[in-house]
Write a structure and sequence with these properties.
There is one protein chain. By secondary structure, the protein is α/β, with parallel strands linked by helices. The chain has 2 domains: 3-171, Rossmann fold; 214-331, Zinc Finger, Delta Prime, domain 3 (Up-down Bundle). It has helices at residues 11-23, 37-52, 64-69, 98-108, 130-141, 161-165, 177-186, 191-201, 205-212, 216-233, 239-248, 253-273, 285-295, 302-315, 319-331, and strands at 29-33, 82-85, 88-89, 94-95, 118-122, 147-153, 168-171. A hairpin with a 4-residue loop joins strand 3 and strand 4. The longest helix has 21 residues, at 253-273. Bound molecules: zinc ion (ZN). Zinc ion binds at residues 53-55, 59-60, 62-63, 65-66.
């Protein structure tokens, strides 16, 4: 098996990239989109190794360049032609600012140290400011020889259309259920336990394991279900209280929405089938049943309300207003 094929799951992404790896010819830029952080990073790093490899079958894992990638404590830190860029926290939230992009541009103009070009992996593209994206756009429009960008983002929502249209988009869908199940069992979970974990994490192994081990996400999941239950149960529940919940957990909205969507799926399924066995979040069955009963036909609208809320968050500056409206709509 080729090294890049070992990246877990993501069959459609692998299919899309197969030719690049086989022909050893890579485009100037890629935009990896998807929730599967681990998959995107693993693939980006394999690709970087292949681009800069000095051996025969790239990435060979033996040449000087390949070895440099694994030389330091952090992947690639010792490689002179490789750089990973992360969002930084300046005010209240993390972002990639124009200044960081300008520094990057400066660095692309310097010669490749080992003569095989340069690779830049940008994490959290969704946090890059509009000014930053516009600065990056120039390079995407007129790529310099030997310079490669691999941009990683959770969703395309906040990426400028001009950047999107000049990027080679590859979708990362994570692992299939069967693949995740197999992996969990390899890690020592019994099949029944593995199936349970799978439902809770829905595709993301990291999320599943954190929930299973009773870690931070397990607690967050419990809090999200109980908060939304309150919103449904007490129609007059002050949305302000629940906004505080969101506000305090600013960095975890992806996970919060993930759990909310999982809740919405369960109430809709239970409302339609009236079968408890169809509920995925078995450990919160009572909440799912009760919410579906209170919501009635409105159970079927919850997913839409959440999707709409998520979309508005991208475009509307007043996040509190968006969240409160969304909760009011859920509460009815
Ligand atoms: Zn090599």
């Amino acid at each position: 098996m080729k090294s890049w094929e070992k990246v877990l799951g993501n069959d459609s992404a692998k299919k899309a990239l197969k030719e690049s790896f086989e022909k050893q010819s890579f485009l100037h830029n890629y935009l990896f989109i998807g929730e599967d952080e681990e998959g995107k990073i693993a693939m980006a790093r394999e690709m970087a190794k292949a681009i800069l490899c000095e051996g025969e079958e790239k990435p060979c894992g033996r040449c000087k360049s390949c070895q440099l990638f694994h030389g330091g404590e952090i992947f690639g830190e010792n490689h002179p032609d490789y750089e990973e860029i992360f969002p930084t926290k300046t005010t209240s939230k993390e972002s990639i600012k124009k200044e960081a992009v300008m520094d990057l541009m400066e660095s692309t103009r310097m010669k490749s140290y080992r003569g095989k070009g340069k690779v830049y992996v940008i994490h959290g593209m969704e946090t890059m400011t509009v000014e930053g994206q516009n600065a990056l756009l120039k390079t995407l429009e007129e790529p310099l020889g030997g310079i490669h960008f691999i941009l990683l983002t959770k969703s395309e929502g906040s990426i400028l259309p001009t950047v999107l249209s000049r990027s080679n988009v590859v979708e990362f869908n994570g692992m299939t259920q069967e693949e995740t199940l197999e992996l969990l069992m390899k890690r020592g979970y019994s099949e029944s336990m593995a199936r349970k974990i799978l439902v809770m994490g829905s595709g993301s192994l990291k999320r599943a394991e954190s929930i299973a081990s009773g870690g931070e996400l397990s607690e967050l999941r419990r809090e999200v279900f109980s908060a939304i239950h309150k919103v449904v149960k007490e129609k007059g529940y002050t949305p302000l209280g629940t906004w505080k919940f969101f506000e305090e957990k600013e960095g975890q909205w992806t996970e919060i929405f993930f759990f909310l969507e999982s809740w919405a799926r369960d109430v809709a399924v239970y409302f339609v089938t009236q079968e408890k066995e169809k509920i995925a979040n078995t450990d919160f069955m009572d909440i799912m049943v009760e919410d579906a009963q209170i919501l009635g036909e409105r159970s079927l609208q919850m997913m839409n309300i959440l999707h709409q809320g998520k979309e508005y968050l991208h475009y509307n500056g007043n996040k509190q207003l968006v969240i409160e409206n969304m909760l009011l709509e859920i509460g009815g």
